[in-house]
Design goal:
Elements lengths: L3 E2 L9 H4 L3 E4 L5 H11 L2 E2 L4 H4 L2 H4 L6 E2 L1 H8 L3 E8 L2 E9 L15 E2 L4 H14 L31 H5 L10 E2 L9 H6 L23 H15 L3 H13 L12 H4 L28 E2 L1 H15 L9 H7 L4 E3 L8 E3 L4 E3 L6 E3 L2 E3 L3 E8 L4 E7 L4 H15 L5
């Protein structure tokens, strides 16, 4: 049976008790940190939309009614949450709440793996820029010069402008927005099959259907195309390249694009949950990883964000040089604010908001049947937060929790 998913089933009977069960690690010593953690856990505020999340007056209002994290997890039927907070350019603390699966009692810890969903695209983009710095790829060269097992079809929209890595990283390559059928381990499809698309694959083909470079249209196909560029160029699987370029150098030992998970990680995997809090089988892809295939912990994602902040400030070039990181965090295209109601720009593979001390970089993600991820970093002040959930309603929860972190750590907005 073909199952469909989007990359941005046991009842939740144990959450009331288990949401209070938490595991905390990698924290600063002393009562001050514990007080701040408690303030975050008990200071969630109502966030109806991203507009309110970005509104300093709303987030910092003294009169705002506050809620308790455990209560909101139960109300929203989100069984598990993991959080990592970055302050002064370092991991201040990380903590897990709830359970891996609503039909079990294994608690979420800081070592639990969550689906990063479309946050995966940010890491894929960082890998691409790493290879640009090495001279393997160029941002403005026709990607067909790198692709060998499949080519971008020529259409009326590619006569004057070709699909380039820059256009793929900024969702301006004229590609359609499409869902995908899940590809199992024994079905034999390849990335080329997925990009070719059609009824048998369950997704639209990766063929430009609008003028290139002129409009922004979010597309998973672009990241799959980048994954194929990597694999065609190096003759090696994407998960192996990601470990070589990002995970090993940054000490992200609990992160992988390999799925199913290797045995040493599988025992720590959280299950996705639908809107009723029912545990469901993961709908992870076995072939296409670059758009939504990352499994990771909040602490590992914090390592990635801290590295980029250090690079941005000229303190590290382990992954990217300061020049390249600053190019990544430079606005390439202003996205129409109407879909989310707040102005956001596209950098090179990452979303941007604000400027100066308030400059934020982020890439949220959501996978069906129920997993959500929201990492945010402020490179000029060394602050950030990683929030990941294993519930369909986690998007609302992570906005409320992020607002609490913003308040407690006095983020510039």
């Amino acid at each position: 049976m073909t199952r469909y998913r989007i990359a941005c089933c046991a009842a939740l009977t144990l959450l009331g008790a288990l949401a209070l069960t938490s595991s905390c690690a990698q924290t600063e010593e002393g009562p001050l940190t514990e007080e701040r953690i408690a303030a975050v856990e008990n200071g969630l505020i109502e966030i109806g939309s991203p507009v309110a999340l970005f509104d300093a007056a709303h987030v910092h209002a003294d009169s705002a009614e506050t809620f308790v994290l455990a209560d909101r997890m139960a109300e929203l039927k989100v069984p598990g949450v993991t959080v990592a907070v970055i302050d002064d350019g370092e991991l201040a603390w990380a903590k897990g709440y709830g359970v891996l699966s609503a039909d079990g009692d294994t608690p979420v810890t800081t070592e639990s793996l969550f689906e990063a969903a479309s946050t995966s695209k940010f890491l894929t983009g960082a890998m691409a820029l790493h290879y640009v710095e090495q001279g393997v790829f160029d941002l403005d060269t026709d990607v067909n010069e790198y692709l060998t097992s499949w080519k971008v079809p020529e259409t009326e929209f590619t006569v004057d402008q070709k699909v380039t890595l820059r256009l793929l990283l900024t969702h301006r390559a004229g590609l359609p927005t499409t869902n995908f059928a899940d590809v199992g381990p024994d079905e034999g499809q390849t990335l080329a099959d997925i990009l070719t698309g059609g009824p048998d694959m369950g997704n639209e083909p990766a063929t430009p259907v609008r003028p290139l470079g002129e409009t922004w249209e979010y597309s998973n196909l672009g990241c799959i195309m980048i994954q194929l560029m990597f694999e065609d160029t190096f003759g090696r699987p994407f998960p192996e390249l990601a470990r070589e370029v990002i995970f090993d150098p940054l000490g992200m030992d609990s992160s992988t694009f390999q799925y199913p998970l290797p045995p040493e990680l599988a025992a720590r995997e959280t299950m996705p949950h639908d809107g009723e809090g029912t545990a469901c089988a993961p709908l992870m892809d076995y072939v296409a990883f670059g758009h939504a295939g990352l499994m990771t912990t909040a602490s590992d994602m914090a390592r990635f964000y801290i590295e980029l902040m250090r690079s941005y400030n000229g303190q590290s070039d382990t992954l990217l040089s300061m020049e390249m990181t600053r190019r990544m965090f430079t606005k390439q295209f202003a996205i129409d604010p109407s879909p989310i109601g707040a102005p956001v720009s596209e950098g090179l593979g990452v979303f941007l908001r604000g400027e100066g001390e308030g400059l934020m970089f982020f890439h949220h993600g959501g996978n069906t049947p129920g997993a959500n991820s929201l990492p945010v970093g402020l490179p000029n002040v060394g602050q950030g937060a990683i929030i990941m959930t294993n519930g369909h309603n986690g998007e609302l929860l992570f906005m409320e929790l992020l607002a609490s972190i913003m308040r407690e750590y006095d983020w510039p907005l």
